[in-house]
Write a structure and sequence with these properties.
215 residues; six-stranded mixed beta sheet
Length: 215
């Protein structure tokens, strides 16, 4: 699908003027404030130093967030590596997720078959799967590592998200990030992401949803 260029002024207008109810109708899977943040980022105005309105989900700027259950309290600070692979671009695709605690001990590892999609879609879906695992295991702060420079720069607000296939994935990613107290995202060489890359390819080869979870 070709890129669709959206007027930045229109995105800012949507972010500023649409009510929560309208945003929920348009994007039922995401919180209104996370949609506004995503629209501002796509317009080239990433969120910075804002105060969180009452009832809005937390963000890495403001802190806060849902208190993890006592069973998940041990996770605390976590490290996430994800990778997406597509053979053919678009083609058969897989996602690899590696979640570590702050001491480098593996909490979870997943190899996921994604069906047919592009490499960038696979990278986003791998990141989303990793963030879902981090939330599930009670991670409150998260350091994220990807070898996709495009995705890292889009999440940081350095690149606009013009591709129509990536826009809903970008919004979903921001919604999950807003559930954490703090997070950072970093681009790393492929050689430093070998474990997640191997899992992504195992997802394609075996169409296996999950290969292991550590305690």
């Amino acid at each position: 699908m070709p890129d669709q260029i959206i007027d930045p002024a229109l995105l800012l207008t949507l972010a500023a003027r649409l009510s929560d109810d309208v945003l929920r109708d348009l994007f039922p899977a995401a919180a209104p404030e996370s949609i506004r943040d995503a629209l501002r980022t796509m317009a080239g105005h990433p969120k910075a130093g804002r105060r969180t309105p009452a009832g809005a989900p937390p963000s890495p700027d403001t802190g806060g967030g849902p208190k993890p259950s006592p069973l998940k309290e041990h996770a605390g600070s976590c490290i996430l590596f994800t990778d997406g692979a597509s053979r053919g671009n678009p083609g058969e695709a897989g996602a690899g997720v590696v979640l570590l605690d702050k001491n480098g001990r593996e909490i979870a590892a997943e190899a996921i078959y994604l069906g047919r999609c592009t490499n960038n879609v696979a990278e986003y879906r791998a990141l989303i799967a990793g963030l879902e695992a981090a939330v599930r295991f009670g991670c409150r702060t998260l350091r994220i590592h990807l070898d996709s420079e495009l995705i890292v720069r889009q999440i940081r607000g350095q690149y606009k998200v013009r591709n129509a296939q990536l826009q809903p994935l970008f919004i979903k990613t921001n919604d999950l990030l807003n559930r954490l107290e703090r997070w950072s995202i970093h681009h790393i060489p492929r050689s430093e992401n070998a474990r997640a890359d191997k899992l992504a390819n195992m997802g394609i080869d075996g169409r296996q949803q999950q290969i292991g979870v550590g305690a």
